[in-house]
Amino acid sequence: MNLKKISFLLILVFINSQVFSASGIKIKKDWFMIDGERFFVKGIGYSNCRPHQQPDSKKIDLAQTENDFKLIKEAGFNT
Prior knowledge:
Layout: H1 3-23, E1 25-28, E2 31-34, E3 37-39, H2 62-74
Antiparallel strand pairs: 1-2, 2-3
């Protein structure tokens, strides 16, 4: 691994540890803990591509994407 990669990884680890320690987020026994309580991540994988549309297509419908995020929020996903 070259020096740039190692430096980048060390910076990420430092930033990550600062964010977690400042926000009350910890990892304990395979759980995210926020202010001492278990936090269950409810996340999804998202792509704004529609069926039969290529992922690298530049034809993105902003209104449809905004509606997708509205539905995701209404469904209760938190990450």
